[in-house]
């Protein structure tokens, strides 16, 4: 039996761009699917096709047991959607926005009022509740839009990058709301650039690139596919990056990634703790001083890099904060380096 969200061979083209190139999905009821992929991979297009906002060129989709192409209106009644770009009425207050959604879904005025108040509280918007939404900051708008998607609790929810632009506290709050919803039986398709978010919330993950699913599985399965552990070494001096890379190359099972500003080197290995001791001895023999060395399991970042050839763009800064670090400089960092180089050249 197909799951609560089901798609088969979805194709959508825009001129020459094949935004979706035959996507299959099957999300069991009451679970969360994390849709990951670099910018332009086709995530939003998939969400828009599944939520009746776009008509696919070919393929089939069934949501909450209803055929999306044949009965779009019925599908709309069974789903909630929070899009990538917040859709709130600028001239209404936060409270009015939420009450209006309740009334559109034929809630009684009293129930809509109570639900609005509850959601404003949950999303830390009570203080701003009676100001027009046009005075809200980006993160506040985002939260109001998410709250609007939760006014009625539909059996199937779609959230396109729900936590992009939220501060850590509000991101945490949303994760808790999502976990509650799902434990109550809601099925959720969530797109995200934050791999730790997929790690925490998603039962299954689909990685898309160029409109195709290039990998799927649980976070653990995907990590296992990326191959064993990683050794991470932080050398004491920048000059030691090159000789230390040579040492690691000799022990590793893949390319050594070096991050110059943190003096951190990472290499995939097999052989665990014993190998670690050997690496330490070899570095010592060559007189290379280190500040830190450790063995870690692959993160979803490693998975992402090995599958798509680069880091998830927005995850770069995010993981920096978490102290996990990506193993290759992200595009944001590269762009910054390029800008700095230009400034140097202009001097
Ligand atoms: N309305 C449109 N007209 C033309 N091209 C489009 C349209 N919508 C999407 N595309 C193209 O389809 C491809 C997939 O876009 P989509 O928005 O689905 O990517 P995404 O995975 O959501 O990316 P992001 O992470 O940046 O949100 C891109 O090449 C995009 O330029
Ligand atoms: Mg998108």
Automatic annotation (TrEMBL):
The gene is drrA_7. NCBIfam families: drrA. It comes from Streptomyces jeddahensis. SUPFAM superfamilies: P-loop containing nucleoside triphosphate hydrolases (SSF52540). Belongs to the ABC transporter superfamily. Drug exporter-1 (DrugE1) (TC 3.A.1.105) family. One of its GO terms (biological process) is daunorubicin transport. It holds the Pfam family DrrA1-3_C. It is a peripheral membrane protein. Keywords: Antibiotic resistance, ATP-binding, Cell membrane, Hydrolase, Membrane, Nucleotide-binding, Translocase, Transport. It is found in: Cell membrane. InterPro entries: AAA+_ATPase, ABC_transporter-like_ATP-bd, ABC_transporter-like_CS, ABC_transporter_ATP-binding, DrrA, DrrA1/2-like_C, P-loop_NTPase. It comes from the Bacteria. Residues 314-347 are annotated as: Disordered. Residues 315-324 have a biased composition (Acidic residues). Its main location: membrane. This is ABC-type xenobiotic transporter. The keyword Translocase applies. GO terms for cellular component: plasma membrane. Residues 325-340 have a biased composition (Low complexity). Residues 5-235 form the ABC transporter domain. Coiled coil: none annotated. Its EC number is 7.6.2.2.
């Amino acid at each position: 039996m197909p799951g609560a969200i089901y798609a088969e061979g979805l194709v959508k083209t825009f001129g020459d761009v094949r935004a979706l190139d035959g996507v299959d999905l099957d999300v069991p009821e009451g679970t969360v699917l994390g849709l990951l992929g670099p910018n332009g991979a086709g995530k939003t297009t998939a969400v828009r096709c599944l939520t009746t906002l776009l008509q696919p060129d070919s393929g089939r989709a069934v949501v909450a047991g209803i055929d999306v192409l044949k009965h779009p209106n019925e599908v709309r009644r069974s789903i909630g959607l929070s899009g990538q770009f917040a859709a709130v009425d600028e001239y209404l207050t936060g409270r009015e926005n939420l009450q209006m959604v309740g009334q559109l879904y034929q809630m009684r005025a009293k129930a809509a009022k109570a639900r609005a108040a509850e959601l404003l509280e949950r999303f830390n918007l009570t203080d701003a509740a009676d100001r027009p939404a046009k005075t809200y900051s980006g993160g506040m708008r985002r939260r109001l839009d998410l709250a609007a998607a939760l006014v009625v609790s539909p059996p199937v929810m779609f959230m396109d990058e729900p936590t992009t632009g939220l501060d850590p506290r509000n991101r945490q709050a949303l994760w808790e709301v999502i976990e509650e919803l799902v434990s109550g039986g809601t099925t959720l398709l969530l797109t995200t650039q934050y791999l730790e978010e997929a790690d925490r919330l998603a039962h299954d993950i689909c990685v898309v690139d160029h409109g195709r699913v290039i990998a799927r599985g649980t976070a653990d399965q995907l990590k296992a596919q990326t191959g064993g552990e990683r050794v991470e070494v932080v050398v004491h001096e920048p000059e030691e990056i090159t000789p230390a890379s040579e040492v690691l190359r000799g022990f590793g099972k893949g390319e050594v990634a070096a991050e110059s500003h943190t003096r951190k080197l990472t290499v995939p290995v097999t052989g665990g703790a014993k190998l670690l001791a050997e690496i330490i001895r070899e570095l010592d023999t060559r007189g290379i001083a280190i500040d830190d060395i450790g063995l870690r399991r692959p993160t979803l970042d490693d998975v992402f890099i090995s599958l798509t050839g680069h880091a998830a763009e927005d995850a770069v800064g995010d993981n920096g904060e978490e102290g996990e670090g990506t193993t290759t400089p992200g595009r944001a960092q590269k762009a910054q380096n390029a800008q700095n180089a230009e400034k140097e050249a202009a001097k």
